[in-house]
Write a structure and sequence with these properties.
It is built from 3 helices and 4 strands; from the N terminus they run E-E-H-E-E-H-H. With 82 residues, it is α+β, with helices and mostly antiparallel strands. Strands 1, 2, 3 and 4 form a 4-stranded antiparallel β-sheet that branches. The model has no long low-confidence stretch (mean pLDDT 83). It has a single domain, classed as Alpha-Beta Plaits.
């Protein structure tokens, strides 16, 4: 199993937007079945502007499929930096 934990650090007031975008992305990931077994969004209580994802993949091939478009980090970055 491969675990990936990307972090997202927001400016003051950006926490709700970050969480919404990550939630929408999680819905897309589940819909296309990219091989990600778990895609959990976690928002820090001590600093709600920051969030992280906790993701499980069964193998390298599943991780590679997840990182390919349309679920690429570029798409996520474009949405968060609007």
């Amino acid at each position: 199993m491969i675990i990936q934990v990307p972090n997202y650090f927001g400016r003051p007031g950006a926490g709700d937007t970050i969480f919404r975008v990550l939630d929408e992305l999680a819905t897309q990931v589940k819909a296309i079945g990219s091989g990600c077994n778990l895609h959990q969004i976690c928002r820090l209580i001590c600093n709600p502007e920051n969030s992280f994802l906790y993701k499980h993949y069964p193998d390298e091939a599943s991780l590679a499929a997840h990182l390919a478009p349309p679920t690429s980090n570029k798409s996520l970055k474009d949405q968060l930096l609007k």
